What we know:
Radius of gyration of chain B: 25 Å
Oligomer: heterodimer
Number of domains of chain B: 1
Strand content of chain B: under 5%
CATH class of the largest domain in chain A: Alpha Beta
CATH topology of the largest domain in chain A: D-Maltodextrin-Binding Protein, domain 2
CATH architecture of the largest domain in chain A: 3-Layer(aba) Sandwich
Helix content of chain B: over 70%
Number of helices of chain A: 14
Radius of gyration of chain A: 24 Å
Distance between the termini of chain A: 75 Å
CATH architecture of chain B: Orthogonal Bundle
Amino acid sequence: MRTRNTTLALAGLLVAAATTGCGGAVTTASNAKADGTYAQIAALPKDQQVAKAKELAQKEGRTLSLYTSMTADIATPIAQAFEKQYGIHVSVFRGNSETVLQRALQEAQAGKAGADTVETNFLEMTALSDNNLLADFNGSSLDKVEPAGKFAHWTASRLNVFQPAWNTDLIKPADEPHSWEDLALPKYKGKLTLEVSDSDWFENVTKYWLDQGKSQAEVDKLWKAIVANSKVSKGHTTMMQFLSAGQSPMEAMNYTYITDRAAEKGAPVTHLPQGGVSKIPAFARPNGVGMIKNAQHPAGAWLFYNWLLTDGQKELVKLGLTPSTKVPGDKSLTGLTLVPFDVKGLSKDDGSWDKKYDALLRGAATTGS
Amino acid sequence: MTLAPTSTTARDDDPEARPGRTPQPAEDRRAHRLLRLLRRPLSLQGLLVGGAVVVVGYLAIVPLGYLIHDTFLSADGSGLSFNAFARAYGGNSQSGEMMLNSLWFALGSAALALVLGTALAYVQVRTDTPFKGLFFAASLVPLIVPGILYATSWIFLGDPSSGLLNSLVFKPLFGSSPINIYSVWGMIWVQGLHLAPVAFLLMVAAFRAMDPSLEESAAMSGANRLTVLRRVTVPLLRPAMISAALLMFVQSLESFEVPGLLGLQNGIYVFTSRIYFVLRAYPIDYGAAGAYAIGLLVIAAVGVLVSSWLQRSSRNFQTVTGKAFRPRPVELGRARPFVGAGVILYFLLTVVLPVAVLVYASLLKYYAAPTRKTLSQMSLANYRAVFDMPLAFTALKNSLIVGVGAATAVMLLTAIVSWVVLRTRAPGRRLLDLLAFTPIVIPGLVLGLALSFVYLRMSLPIYGTLLILLVSYCTRYLPYGMRYSSSAMAQMSPELEESAAVSGASWFQTFRRVLLPLMSGGILAGWVYILVVSFRELSSTILLYSPGKEVLSVLIWEQFENGQFTTLAALGVCMVVLLVVLVSIAYRLGARFGLQSDSAN
């Protein structure tokens, strides 16, 4: 008898699975209400917006969905700090910036917005904005952000700074690099590591060199020499692991916050030369925040956006990141020579820099560069 | 064969046909088995078999359809186009060279893993070797340790300048540093060791189901041991060996962990470097990604066809027949200590060394080669961090639910489908076999996109729940389940089913009481494999999981992204301990249900 019952149960399960597979209707939950909420807040005088958003967020069920590429050790305290201030629970989806973008796009195409707000890298934020997924924000918190940090439909929340990094046991002060050009020096032969996906760095350095008056031929020669000095690795955090362990002596580029965090744990790594002041042009890539159109919790999204540019900035500083506004006590840029990040060149990019960088690393002939 | 004319399924499906039916040739009879089963669509077996075929077909077709759609539809959506192939393989993509690197790497790894896995399985099942208990760990630990950790451990061991093997063993003893993990050979070594458990699990099941009397007769007829091995043992195991080789070959072609960490260092680019490159750029060129996947699919399809061609005379491999047999261990005699030493060496290389690096790293704040200073700073802080992770237990629970669910569902489905493929002459059964193999070549991200595309548009609550992960894992591990099931099925002679049917058993009774128990070795091996690897599936998980529904692989990825290699190592050590316990419970339970066990020695 038991056999019969299990069999029936099993058959039922299979049938259910089969119908699940074949059936199903298309449902779209277009949420016109969200755009109404955004408009309602935007229309108010700036000093009344926060109060209104708080009031509306209460009606939304005091919850919020955030898609972000912040690492867990940053996303978790950020979500907690926001929750503490407003009593709104943040459920966080974390993924690579590519994953965040793909998921948001997929959901938008199906008309089911899973995210209320998104915080991720420059390139992906630009893509979200280009795909018309983001709603406009006009809160007073924008006043603190420099014009370079304001984009169509999104705003910079933090900066990732590009600098070389090295192991202080293996690179003595006399051998420290002082310019991007230095990476091409023969003394670094076999000592450098390049990251396989750093095409935005490649683009910025190339443009910087060209702007400085170098010819294309000179630039190409420098890159060839740098690649000839280098091994290639995958993932900035993996590379930092090997740098800390003394497995590799120097990285052509890592984000300064990754280097700083490893150094904080006692690893013999740094991105600043002995005097504590680096003259290597530091490109600061903006990461930004945006509100999703058709969101389930638009008022919560508005509050989070506003908070991340005000009180949230202090939380970012506590976590060792570089905020996009001026925050007292922020030391993450000490000793760095900031230069503008080439927003224009990269937002119009159609992937050609990816291709050029990839070909350069493989030693393949580049076409049309 | 005098009983042959009695129709196998007649009892249940066709009561009038019972007495005095004209004998039919065996082939014809088989041809009608499935049809007869399905003639009564509402009968239990009709539902089961039909349902299983439909589900498997559905699971495989969704991602494949998505892939083909994106690959062959031209950019403006107006018609068929092959531009994607030009973008993927043409220009300066160096795809020829990369393909060769890939093939070389995949063939080498599959061959190494096959030789290691088969030799180990033979020693384990068929000889009286000492230390049998160690096989269990040796067969599991490399599977459990996430690829990224396994490869990293080997970098710390085998780096030409600072690797521990070079600096602590070879340099002091021989004065040279011969080991370079950043070579094709290094890649083959790490990938081969990581894959050997796939072959081992399959081959153990195959050896257990093999009647040793065939070998004994050969020996009696004057064949020496080598000849027996070459002419009897190996040919008998062909289905399992081909299955294992095929799986491992395609898996190596498709994996990027080892080539990404070891190969890039010396500019060894493989095929998957291209896929990785295409999938992380924006806008993603889905066409090109699809074109690569279809390239892999062609290779895999050739593999499946060749393997079924090699198994065309299926009677040759059917070693499980109506005759009772008891596998008797070969006495190793004087070779016993050497084999024992080999076992210990293998255990040291695949389990002790990498796990020791992990344990060592898990006690540090950041990885550094062992010195007095680093040794004095060791602490258990990383383990505390693991247990303090707010999501650790939720993730563990979710991983267990999805892993056990996927392993069970896949093995049940594939047991039935492999019966359809191997035992019936149903039209399209080859296609079904091929279809069930396709998910292996679909990049994880593409699978994730395909699933979210479908389930976002479905009113059933699947997207955003654990169910979508279950669907994803069932799809991803279908090819593995299929290989494990069909190699077990291929060893079984139909005469067992026929005798069951003659004795009045229904199809379902036969399946449950005869086939499943006899296949249980292969099925349990497949189940264990899927459970273990599902704990580390990330490429589709990362797109499909939802907040609050995290699984362990998401946590691993987070630690990795945070740059917490040492915490990750602690998590890895915990996973090894946990899964070893889990799987040994599974084997104990399996033993209770009549699975032969020969690990006690």
